[in-house]
């Protein structure tokens, strides 16, 4: 079974997907981390975010997700870059990299292969989160959610993720502006734009805590696994 959870940054999709996978004992596939790793490669190699540079880069790039005792670790060409991709700069780089055709083609192929390999060897299912999972990567996913939230709520969450002080108005305004800019890029890109799949359940998480978000998804998974068509 494939569970697809899409949505903009700060909507809660990563934490929700991770906890759903943990509760079910399934694989959690963090596609956002993959794009962050590719974005980091662009930055560290001083490459422009162009189709030509992307085509040359992905031919030699090795991006891997590895389970660890404290969660999924991200490797880039064999080096653990988990900490280095969790920065505001990495988020911006990921957004730019993900708009490039060669990058998306390579990552979509990798994501599909990782999910298929896991189900073939372990059974069960895979919980995948991102921005085009239900529309492009796994259009036939068994369960699809599109998480949304108020921009202010998302900015507050992202600021907390980065360890920023709650009362830092200037920092909040900066993060809010960055999220709005990223939304515009993700929604307006020509390749796999951010949007809800027609058959996805849209869940507004503005006033929901993580436990409530997780329960919404688990309920849908239970219903799918017990339905006659499952």
Describe this structure in words.
It is globular and about 50 Å long. The termini are close together. The strands form two sheets. It has a five-stranded parallel sheet, sandwiched between helices. A hairpin with a 2-residue loop joins strand 4 and strand 5 (79-80). It contains nine helices and eight strands. With 230 residues, it is α/β, with parallel strands linked by helices. Helix content is 52%, strand content 17%.
This entry's quaternary arrangement is single chain
Order of helices and strands: EHEHHEEEHHEHEHHEH
Which spans have pLDDT < 50 for at least 5 consecutive residues?
none
Class per helix and strand makeup: alpha/beta
Please give the count of helices: 9
Characterize the main sheet: 5 strands, parallel
The helix content, as a percent range, equals 40-55%
How much of the sequence lies in strands comes to 15-25%
Shape: globular
Report Rg. 17 Å
* Overall average residue pLDDT: 91
